[in-house]
């Protein structure tokens, strides 16, 4: 079923066996999964995926799980794409779309990475997984680990969202709150990994999460009948999603399944935490640590991503760009999209609405272009951002 | 596309035109949508649905929307079914399944009713819809009305869950909090309907919501390759879901698409609000108003349902039963399912875990029977029920 052939270092090109447990390359860079694309080209018809049972494991040939019995699924993937007619009219785009990842289990796109990551951990016989998290990844990995019967150790900042703490707790993960930032939580996990031999599943420290995220790209390509749209906007924190989508598109190109140009990949950040935007504007290969990182969109409050150089590569090679928006614009966009399109999305996703508006105004995006916004989660996980003021009526009132 | 022929009173059998706006029958009972099943039998192959784009509107021949351009969709329906291996082992069922409605837009099965209800309102040219709600229906109808560009007036108890208030608010509904119960909210809406001519979309006062809920039954039948399972457990408040599933199964039977026996439909309530269980046990045709109704599962805190007689009919005709569980069992079940199966479900859904356990113990359900639990929503909407107590670490700690 899978055409997984080996792991390859994203920096030095070193190769590792697909049958062993690996984290980073000896050189310290993330490993990427490589497939026998020649064999897929010969044996697989791209139209076969559509007829299979829904969910991201439809794309099993391009995923690293080798035996179907190891698949751990909670119904992730195959999220809907909607054309945003009203918003498109308002900002001047005739073909504006949103892919809504909020309909994944645990309410975010993190479910994709967790589904593939936990399934592969099961296949490799791993007993305990450990990870630091800002919140949503902890919820997702907790759910899949619970289903798989794998122990999960999670450390998150003590000021992480309540809902993230509650998710990790109810799924039964060994969860610790750390009086510090996610980087401090990461250090505690790294020590535990050394001491106890846990499998380290921190962002990009294990090679399989990207493969789960990659399926967003496969689904977008399939949605447009195996043609690439012109641009994809993506809220960028750790950047695994954008790296995954880029990887999907390169694989599809190599397979010869798509002939037109890979979309411009557009990384969107908040003004309060904009390391990728800065590095892009300053033509640097990697980002610098963003001091005092601060934004209401917690999922993109990542001061320095391990895979920053991969994100910057993807943005540049695809002729994309990087854009920052204000927190006040995020809140405005959240409200706008709910009222115009009936979609209550995550603040990370809402950055894209403000960004696409800017990019049309400054001419980077043209009226006829097919543009996709990738919303990463459900607004239900961010209820604290909605400040309702509703009128109260006595029981004998009239409206 | 639709084979909608007329509306029929569920009590007196009076018929009404499918082309006009109708609420209740003159006799005060709910109206049901009737289709030209003979024509469907002749023209439609049951295997055609599977090949269509996912979502409940796949079943368009058995839905009341007549012109595709009126469909208002946010990605509802086609929710996953999982086999509960660990839970099944624990309680002694070899074929225990759950259908997880938490993956619908707005996080609950209410999205199904809203999708069909709002689409049909659009088709009928309705400008303003009004409804009382305990919470989740208000959120769902707000989202779909926003997308449709139809005005929605919502009244809910001032002590409704915060998240429900925030949903109605962010989607831009005209939302009022009422210093009283849902019945008081209902009275204020009823007065507004008379005064302003709004379309009344209170539970069972409009005929189309049931049709949306019906698709849960169609999906279950299709999932089991057009064979009925042996039993379905359903958390019962207003009862629209169980009435809808029953209606789906009767239609499938009449179409000749399924040959085996309709499943036992099992209504599950909480001890603090058990009018259907009482009426069932006392062999009554309708329920009595449950004074001081009280349960942590807000969606089934319905003291007297307008369609109670239909629920009781469905349970009795299908040789099902009615079961009540304690609130403490609901919390235990929530925790059990999250840890064993990676599913954080709504408290309404959790009633079913406790109930199925009882029904196996007392012999009503047998080890080999195919049993489906219908979870109505995501636990993310009920975070207040999770009381996390997590250890806090200093930044230089070891685990």
UniProtKB/TrEMBL annotation, chains A, B:
Entry EC number(s): 4.2.3.1
A GO term, aspect molecular function: L-serine ammonia-lyase activity
Residues of the Tryptophan synthase beta chain-like PALP domain: 72-377
NCBIfam families in UniProt: PRK08197.1, thrC
Matching InterPro entries: Ser/Thr_Dehydratase (IPR050147), Thr_synthase-like (IPR004450), TrpB-like_PALP (IPR001926), TrpB-like_PALP_sf (IPR036052)
Species per Swiss-Prot/TrEMBL record: Clostridium acidisoli DSM 12555
Alphabetized UniProt keyword annotations: Lyase, Pyridoxal phosphate
Protein name according to UniProt: Threonine synthase
Root EC class: lyase
UniProt lineage: Bacteria, Bacillati, Bacillota, Clostridia, Eubacteriales
Family stated for the protein in its record: Belongs to the threonine synthase family.
One matching Pfam family: PALP
Positions bearing N6-(pyridoxal phosphate)lysine: 110
